[in-house]
Structure formats: C-alpha cells, structure tokens
Amino acid sequence: MLASSAKLDARVTSTSANGCLGLGTQRLLGFSLIECLVVNALALGLLSVLLVTSADIISAAQKAGDRSEQAIRARQVFDFLESLVKTAQLPDKWTTGDRLTENETIQYRLMDPCEGFETGVPQPHWGGVAIVDLATTPCLTSADTGVGLYFERVLPCPDQCGEGAGYQIVSTQCDLRDGQTSGGHQWQVSWQQTMERPLRCRDGAAWGRVERIVLSHRSAEESIEGVAVLRLQQIAQGLDATYRWSQPETMVLGVDAWQLSDLNRFSVLTGKAMRSAREHIRAVRVRVIIGPPRAQTALPSLAIERLLIAGPLPARG
Amino acid sequence: MWVDYGIAASIGFAGLLGLVQLTGELTALSTSAYQLTMAGFLLDELAALSLWEGVSLASAAQLCGLVEWGTQVLPCGMAEGWLAVLPQGRLSTAVDGSVSLTWQQMDGSVMAIIRSDAGE
Predict the structure, then answer these.
(1) Contact residues on chain A for B23, CB-CB shorter than 8 A
(2) Residues 11-40 of B with CB under 8 A from A
C-alpha cells in the first residue's frame, strides 16, 4: 500500500513538473514563472499588434472602397443624365438638312411640363432640357420644393421606343417621298395605343416616342427612406390619353444635395451668341453632392460638378 | 514553449501578411476605380467644354490651363481638382489633336487614357 502510494506521488510530481508551476523536488523541469509571464506578455503583445494592424488595414480598405463607391455613384448619376440629354432632341438623322431660322431662334422659350400634347401644334423641333421650379409647377407633386431638371426626350422607333401605348411623334409629311417634301419637316405628337408605324406613313418614314421626365431632389428629413434621394417622375403612358404625371420614384439614394445652374447661350471666349450648327445648344451645370455610403468611415461628401450640353430646344408658340 | 511561441508568432505574421496583401489589393482596386472615375469626369468635362465653346479638345485643355504652356481662360469647373487627385496626373496634347491623360497608379505603373475630338 505504501509502495503504491509513493509511486502515485512520483507520477503526480512528474506530471506537474511539465507545467509552468511544477514544483518537482528532485529535478526542476519546464519553465519558471518569469519565463511564463514573459511568453504570455509576448503573446498578448503579438495579438495586440495583429488586432490593431488588422483593424487599421481593414479601415483603410473600407475607406478606399467607400470613396470609390461615392465616385462610382456620382458617375452613374451623370451617365444617366447624359443619356437623357443625348435623347433630349430630335434624332440627328431626322433633322439632316434642316436648319433653324433666325426667327425660330428668337422665338425659343422653355417647354411647359404642365402643357399636354393635345394643345400642341406641329413644331419643327421637339425635345430639350430645362430647369423648373417645382413649387410653381402644379402638375408635379406638391411635396417637393426647389428645382427640378426637366427633360423632353424623343426615342426613335422601332429600336428604342418600346411597344406600349404612349405619345407618338411623327412628321406631318411622313406620307411623302423625299423629293416631294416641301421645306423643313414639322413634327406632331399624339397619343397612340401602340408604337407601330402609323398606317398613313410610307416605309422608311421616321417616327418615335416622346417622354417627359423630371428629376428632383428630396432631403433626408423629407424622404421616407431617411436619406437624401434623387427622384424621377415621368408622364404616364399606356393607360389612356389623359396627360398626367406619375408618382415620383426614388432613383438614387445618398445624394445629399444637388444644384442646377442654367448657362446662357453665349460663348465665354467670344462673348457672342452661339451660332451655326450650335445655335440651339443649351448647357446646364449640375452639381451633385454624394454622401458617404457608411457613417462609420467618416468620409467627407464628394461634390461633382459637370457641364451637360443639351441638344436644340424647340421654338414653341 | 519558445518553439510553440515561435510557431504561433510565425502563423500570426503569415496571417497578417496575407491580410495586408489582400487588403492592399482591395485598396489598390478601389483607388484605381476612383482614379479612373475622376479621369473620366475630367475628359468628359473637357469634351463638353470643347463642344460648348466650339474649339478642339486640345484647345479646351489649353484654355483650362491644364496642359503645359496653357493659360486658364475658361471657367472649367472642377477639372483642375480632378487632375490634382490623380498622382502625378498630367494632361498633354498630341499633334493629331488628341488629348492624353496619364497618372501613376499605386503599384507604380502609369495609366494613360487618350481621347480625340471624335470620342474616346
């Protein structure tokens, strides 16, 4: 009994001697308390360095990613604006050979988004861009204030206009052959059930769809999303011939502010009005401020200001 | 125990190096996207100005004071700021009237975008 107890004690002593706190009486094995503390401190130090460095690196990567996201979002906004601007006129191939007269240039006036097409008479030009005061535009939603960017677009059919009902634009001389037309073309807009070529028009005649779009801004306090948004509103097409605007839709989140300034049609270089082929070019300066995607990164807002060149604006009236 | 510590430290540092490598590449990718976007803004703005003023793209760059020997005459918006955010960003004009925008990327390579009056 005593012999087996001594054997057990020896085993226990030997086992505990492998740990840091081993108190072997016969032979000191393992590490001292100081060594253990040093190793623990080193391990903790290493862990701290790893954590701090990792956090720094991840934070830097997040910041670069967020900054890139801001820029790409701004790019997408301006790409969309440019795509609208490009179509805010009659397609070039429709107007080849047509030149605006001096009288048409002088008679230029802004399009009225509240004026339907029913009252319109044939015009030599359609499409354009304008800055509208939302507070004084009753046909648009009254919840928005400030200014909006208003586009009248012309989408050539059948490639770009879709099939549904809507406002169709067609030349008043679409039934005549090229040699039979007199003077410049006049274009008329009317509501149609489909966007197929009008029966009275000859093969090869141009026709298209007219769209009207207003982009507006809503601040974070006013928006239901809780962040500032850019909104899109367009005329309702497809239900019936009643001219009305649809409800605004949220287009881009996180646009903290936007400013629009209408440039006059005078060249900075010459001080003269733009003439010849560019006489109806119109420019709008758009400044968009994109907020940081995440509040945690504490990134400043990104402001981008671009000059958008619109096509010829129509001489109405 | 020292061996154990050495192994743990090696694994830790290897992991850290991997993390540094990965996040470095992510940061470089994000930075490249940012710089490309800014470069696109700059060239688009010059194209719009040249159309608006009825001058060539190269002349617009000169009139904005963005190329060597150029003097700023036109209000060019944020074009100068966009050029400034590109590391060693430089705009130059070629004999054929095209405009070349170059800048240095994070890995030291040089990125160049050339645009002519006809488009990109």
Answers:
(1) 57-58, 60-61
(2) 12, 15-16, 19-20, 23-24, 26-27, 30-31, 33-34, 37-38, 40
Q: What is the reported pTM?
A: 0.80
Q: Is B94 helix (H, G, I), strand (E, B) or coil?
A: coil
Domain count for chain B = 1
Domain region containing B90? 37-115
d(CA A14, CA A17): 5
3-state helix, strand, coil in chain B (%, to 5): 55, 20, 30
Q: Which of B14, B5, B19, B11 is nearest to A52 (CA)?
A: B19
Complex ipTM > 0.90: no
| pLDDT reading at A1 higher than 90 | no
Q: Is B53 on the interface with A (CB under 8 A)?
A: yes
The domain limits of chain A are: 61-310
In a domain, B6, yes or no: no
C-beta separation of A256 from A287 below 8 A: no
Asked if A43 lies within 8 A of B8 by C-beta distance, the reply is yes
Residue B82 lies in a domain: yes
- Using an 8 Å Cβ cutoff, are B27 and A61 in contact? yes
What are the tens digits of pLDDT across the range A302-312?
999 998 887 54
Residue A137: its pLDDT value, please?
84
Average pLDDT, chain A: 77
Q: Of how many residues is chain B composed? A: 120
**CA-to-CA separations, B32 to A297, B18, B107, B109, in angstroms, rounded:** 19, 21, 10, 11
> Which tens digit of pLDDT belongs to each residue from B73-120?
778 888 888 999 999 999 998 888 889 999 999 889 999 999 987 544
pLDDT at residue A67, as a whole number: 92
- The answer to whether the CB of A266 falls within 8 A of the CB of A274 is yes
Q: Does B78 touch chain A (CB under 8 A)?
A: yes
pLDDT class of A71 with cuts at 50, 70, 90: very high
Task: Cis check for the bond before A158: say yes or no (omega within 30 of 0).
Answer: yes
Q: Is B29 part of any domain?
A: no
Q: Which residues lie below 8 Å from residue A205, measured CB to CB, with a gap of 6+?
A: A170, A171, A174, A175, A197
Structure tokens at A264: 């006059």
Residue B71 within any structural domain of the chain:
yes
Q: What is the pLDDT of residue A24?
A: 46
- Exposure of A212 in the CB half-sphere (CA atoms within 13 A): 25
Handedness of CA B81, B87, B93, B96 (dihedral sign): negative
